[in-house]
Amino acid sequence: MTDTADTDEILYEVDSKVAVITLNRPEVANAQNAVLLDALDAAWRRAAADEEVKVILLRGNGKHFSSGHDLKDRWPAPNEITLEWIYGAESRRYLEYTLRWRNVPKPSIAAVQGKCIAGGLMLCWPCDLIVAAENAEFSDPVVHMGIGGVEYHGHTWELGPRKAKEILFTGRAVTAEEAEKVGMVNKVVPLDQLDTEAMELARQIARMPSFGLRQAKRAVNQSLDVQGFYAAIQSVFDIHETGHGNALSVSGYPILTKLDGMKERLKEQ
Length: 269
Hints:
Blueprint: E1 3-6, E2 10-15, E3 18-23, H1 34-49, E4 55-60, H2 71-74, H3 83-102, E5 108-112, E6 115-117, H4 121-124, E7 129-133, E8 137-139, H5 155-159, H6 161-170, E9 174-175, H7 176-181, E10 187-189, H8 194-206, H9 210-226, H10 229-248, H11 254-267
Parallel strand pairs: 3-4, 4-5, 5-7, 6-8, 7-10
Antiparallel strand pairs: 1-2, 2-3, 8-9
Helix pairs in contact: 3-10
């Protein structure tokens, strides 16, 4: 162990040239409030700047990787919400943060267990590799709320167009096994081996030359960007925001009520 630094929402440590970043709100299934996301971005920046760190490992405390956005924490009262406020807040914490994490010039791995819902996808998809526990489930049920998909719209790239449409149209979860078959997940392991397997993979990568790792990541990401990934993520973000605009036209902003109900049901699982 070479370094540790914890906050309430995020735990950070460096072990064998691997920066381990842990989501630390298990009591709410690692729902993402503004404080957590800001602390998470700070942890990514710290790992990127530390010359001793060669690999970044992202994990979550508790039964679930992440239940997505914690809307109770960050949103104004329904009668005070404007589309301008939503667009500004989500541009920063969702679009800007996730694209920055995706382009950190060091390999990154997400270790995912339990539920990974909507905004949870925005934490694991920017990572280069995903190791999933056998009980992991990935879903984006926001079509139920009148929105076409979560803000970081990696669905088509991660799942392929037909599978992406299927999970969005139906709201169902993709199992770890399914995710591995379509290439979204690199490896599926027993739940009790998730941390060990993810760390072993990180250490294996950390033995490679830093410059070679940087160039390999850049080559793959640039190839995706030439195909339109970067432009698509930004343009589809605006499509997402029209869902909020539509919801604002309905009295009481029902999206919040529906999402709150989902969170409460998850706590009972």
